[in-house]
Amino acid sequence: MADKQDAPTAAVVVGPDGMVSGWSEGGRLLLGWTAEDTVGRPVTDLLVDPPPPGFPEGYGAGPDPTGFILLRHRDGSTVDAVVTSHPLLGPDERTLGHVVTIQRWGRRPVIADRAFEQSPFALGAYDPELRFLWINASSGRVIAHSEEQVLGKKYREVLPEFDRTLFPERDDKPYTDALAEVARTGEPTRLITVFRPRGSDYANAWATSIWPVRDAEGRVRAIANWGFDMSAEYWARQRLLILNKASGGIGRTLDVIGTAQELAMTPVPGFVDLVSVDLFDEVLRGEEPPSGSPFAPGETIRLSRAAEHSTKVAADQAPGATTPVTHAPGSVAARCMAAGRSTVELAAEPGQGGEWAFGPGLAADPAHWPPGNPVIDESIAADGLTGRITVPLRARGALLGVVAFSRLDRPEAFTADDLILAEELTAKAAVAIDNARRYSRERTTALTLQRTLLPQGLPKQEAVEVASRYLPGGTGTEVGGDWFDVIPLSGARVALVVGDVVGHGLHASASMGRLRTAVRTLADVDLPPDELLTHLDDLVLHLASDLQPTGHFQPTGETGATCLYTVYDPVSRHLTLASAGHPLPLIISQDGTRPPVPVHPGPPLGIGGLPFEATELELPEGSLLALYTDGLVESRELDVDQRTAELQRALNHSTASLEALCDTVMDAMLPQRRTDDAALLLVRTHALDPHHVADWDVEPDTAQVPRARKLAVDQVDAWGLEEASFVTELVVSELVTNAIRYGEPPIRLRLIRNTSLICEVSDASNTAPHLRRARAFDEGGRGLLLVAQLTQGWGTRHTTDGKTIWCAQPLPQPERH
Fold first, then answer.
1. CA atoms within 13 A of residue 642's CA, in its CB half-sphere
2. Average pLDDT over residues 302-323
């Protein structure tokens, strides 16, 4: 029970001159000094620090006769004590000296001292200047100093490494600054400190509480702290944070190289210093990875480095670039890919014989390595590495490549938990890379399909000059159904078309191809724009019914589309247009004016039952038309009107080349990360030379046929096309005769010299002629057959006041020298 005895109390008599004149037995028990040692010596010899103001003269004369003081023990240690001073007065009230009583601070039982001393937590106390007053044994082991070595010294002198943070990028507060802040403000604080204990290769995390110690009046007399090693929990949390970062940072884009770069950047620098990702070329191309064993034993493995990220060297690879790499037979990477297992290489054996031998905070519960790991390989030190984890990159049973996680010059050796983290990161990235590969393959297929359905080259004609651009949505978006077309029509006219199918993917591309084919077929019938859109609307409704599920399956995709169909006639310079829910074209004259387009877009295709409106405009020669899809003007920041105004400004660039203007517009309007397809068709109109057009009224009398033949032949000869005179005479005779016999007046004959020689006969009847097989004794039925045989093509187009029968003869091409 001796441990429960209170510490002794010392009584000291101090004369006016500060010399000790009396010493009690309690002084010997408390401080080790005997009366012979102290009597006659200055009382200040017992003090570690300079005496407080007024000591011994006047000490205790004020209202507070009690104070804290640090005394020197005979064995060299110090005693933190509470002193109480009372004056000795003579008969004349003159002070003869002081009686000072000394007690150990707090008068703790001895067992309490032992409890603090033997605590597994690091405990310490410091004066307001951060000088050591006391530390327990656990604290001494952490800082690798005994209590005797540090008492009275300043914290910054003993532990300068605590004056900085191990991870400045995390904005951690240095531990010494935290102590000083508590001393200055008197406010307690808590923090987690990451540092390397002396003699350890591992960074450790300590949870610490710091608080002020106050006297009876509330003055801060000391700073105390306690802390415990939470390295295992801390580093486990850091691994979870890296995995959480990987969850949000890997696989954000459906791009193989982009995903590889995300994998390379995620664990640097929190986990490793260098990450490299090598993939098979088939994976980069979106093809199926090599099946079975992708390489023969003893064969050099050829991969491509898709990503590399380091804390030491700036990345040499341009974004999206890859470099070829090889892995020799028997190399660690080759063995890992062949066996499908990870390998951990360490440059040297971790230190054994210290508390930190197994890594940060794992001494009490060391992680268990899988068989064959780790491998001590001193050769990696020649590459500047202290450790490397090589993990095969596998997804859905297929080998995609290999990943290497390396530490450069940091002393920490990898632990088994680090291997688990590396494998988790790789597994997540492998699935994302394989998803990106599959998406790339399907996107390439859809793009190939779409590009084959779009016009490969715009036809040559004299009515307009055209240039076009089509850009699919950015990586991560499916292919859409935007399309455009330029269709030569009869009478030197040309149809300009642009449309957009609802939805994305292969379904949208296939639907686009069907609609484009339908538009071309309907254009060959020479339907007016509003009627053509009506037929196209019916087709979309039929397509929608085809997509209705026949069982429990859902439809394969959305239905519906928008379309703008326009027809330009270079003879009259008239533009006829109709829109099914599609943006109207922008028109800019040569003088920069923008004539209005007084037409209201009709409903999108696929609604059914609603009419479409056609409008006819007369355009000045050389007008610029811009037909586009909504992907060109859509924006999350601006509304459509603002974006359309931006498009008009972009079209104002003066350039003689429509191709260059296309590039200017696309660069100005489209962001780097596009979410939709965009199509643009630029058109500059031309007017046909009036001298290349000739027309005549024909009386509804067969006697007028010879006159019509002569007028036509004379005009062809005047154009210098004598070789076409014979055929022209025959077809004019046949077409005018049919119009007189079966049509209705007025009848009109027109010749157009363009890329071909066009002959047109118009009348007011709506009945259309057709080819038929004439029997041996039939008197008629051979005229149109003769026209079809002698000309390049023929057809009928209906107008608001009748019909026009036309045929075209090829003109001799100028010789090329």
1. 6
2. 77
